[in-house]
Amino acid sequence: MMHNGTDELEEFVCSSETALQLKFVGSKEDFENEELIFHPKYTHQVFGEKEKIFGYKNLKIKLYYTPDHLDTYLGIDYDARIDPIKHKGTKPDDIFKTLLKYIPEGFSINQDQFISNVIQPRPFTPFGELLHVHMSNEGKKYEIYKTDITAPGFREYHERLQTFVLWFIDAASFIDVDDEKWSFYLVYEKSVIDGDTHYMIVGYCTIYYYYAYPDKTKPRISQFLIFPPYQRRGLGTQLLQTIYNDILLDKSVLEVLVEDPSPELTALRDYVDCRNALQLPCFQSPLIHQSYSHEIEKECQEKLKINKHQCRRVYEILRLQVTDRSNSEQYYKFRVFVKNRLNGPYQKQQRDLDRLRRLGVMDHTELSVAAPLTSKEDRIRELQQIYEELESEYQNIIEKLATD
Fold first, then answer.
1. Tens of pLDDT along 392-404?
2. Is this structure's pTM higher than 0.85?
3. Fewest CB atoms within 10 Å of the CB: 62, 123, 247, 386?
């Protein structure tokens, strides 16, 4: 929503990431407590690729939620708004109209009405079946539930809940909840205040069950989110492990997939999968130094429900963990082992192109366009860079495993 213009017009351009203020409001005091505000990571899906809003100075978009029912408040404050009369008909962006496409009906624009809902809360019971209870080191209690769209009231609740994915999952979109193959896992913080039980939503995950011939399913994690105020408390680990524990009970499940994981979710998945894999004999030292095999993949799929690609990644992480990097021969064997995998797709492409060249299907020019020529030295340099980045990722997982 960027507008070109003079320096004076530039004064009316705001960052949508900075302007949007998210908050869970559990008391009247919380409404004014700026320390509770957290900002979105992404806004381009709502406000455009440049993530700018035009027409306001010191803009604040207040999108507040009660922590249980997710009753919603929308307030738009600013110090000044551009005057079309003074600026040749230039109008401000219609923020309210834009947000109406994403925020479900029933939200409040009246501050007093919203605060009234906060100080006179309605009873709340989490949806679905309680799967897991976690007590943090700080003494906080968290509960994880599983439900589906048929639970009374959950459809409306999910409409409010899913707005968060727009702000924290890149390229996220709302799901078709009418499809019965969706399952939902919800994480709540549970507390007792003055004898009353309170629940606060802190994160959730959606999973879609794909069919796998002839009589199996492949659950795919679609959206996985722990809200920023509750991150770095180990709740992502608790949620993912609870999902695994639940899925492992289903004998129809072939393997668990993850849809376009973010770097953060990839790291979390690696950590949890490695921690689980350490319980299997094939991942114990010195066996892990032996050749990677189909038997390892089969055991991973049967015992952990992870696919071949993820199994190989877990194997590499755990093998690096027990590799003596001061032993040049042992470390060299590990690097070659990983680089051979990384170079596999490139070698296959070269073989395919050589075959097309021999058959005369493509001429030299077409082959060059299909795969620009890379010198051996450039390819070695590129492969080394990819390897170093990967080893750094693996090292982060190893260090986290060491804290268990």
1. 999 999 999 999 8
2. yes
3. 123
